[in-house]
Amino acid sequence: MGHYPLNKGVNKPVEFKGLVGSRYILLLLGGLGGVFLGFIALHVAGLSSYLTLPLAMGAGLRG
C-alpha cells in the first residue's frame, strides 16, 4: 500500500513570488496585459519598433 502525503496548504491563500492573495495576482496580470496591449496599439499605429519596445519595457518595469 502506498503512502500519500496530506495537502497541508488547503486553506492557505494563493502565493506567487511573494505576492499573497488573488487580488494582487490579478492586478499583476492586468498590468502586464495592459502593457502588452499598449505595445500592440503603438505598433499597429505605425510607430517604430525602436520607440515602442523601450516604451513598453519602461512601462513594465515601472511598477
UniProtKB/TrEMBL annotation:
Keywords: Membrane, Plasmid, Transmembrane, Transmembrane helix. Pfam families: DUF4133. InterPro entries: DUF4133. The chain crosses the membrane at residues 24-53. This is DUF4133 domain-containing protein.
